[in-house]
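Appendix C reproduces, verbatim, an entry submitted by the partner laboratory led by Prof. M.T., so that reviewers can inspect both the input and the predicted structure.
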Amino acid sequence: MIIAEDVLGPVASNIPLEGAPHVSGHDTLTGHAVVDFGEDEMTQGRAHPMIDPSLRLESIRAQGADPTCGVLLLDLVLGHGSHPDPAGDLAAAVGQARSAAETDGRTLPVVVSLVGTESDPQGLQRCAEALTAVGASIFTSNAAATRAALAHLGGTR
């Protein structure tokens, strides 16, 4: 969010930086926003999204249908204790979101920060391939992914 704020100004979030608007992760979002689906408010009564990504996947699909959504910036963390096929589920939701945008005559860039190694049970390369197959751009750095997402919005740092 620090990198994004340099270009976009304050970014609304359920974990906002000082001076930025606070929104609930359950709110319908407008404008630039970051939602941490692992935040306590989002995990009450349910598993962390690294284990049960259903809320996050639902939100991704909804953003695809939102004509004001200009780019999706996502992260995917691999490792023990995570969903056994997080990229498969994420790729399906990304594909649906991008298809919904195309139906509306829009292009929806999707940028993913993929954190993991080939030694992780999910396999870094396998996950990257699943996501690139649905048109996502993959980065192994949150900062690089954020800069790529900003470039899609016409902003640079």
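Strands lie at 12-13, 33-34, 72-77, 110-115, 137-139. Additional entries are available on request from the coordinating office.
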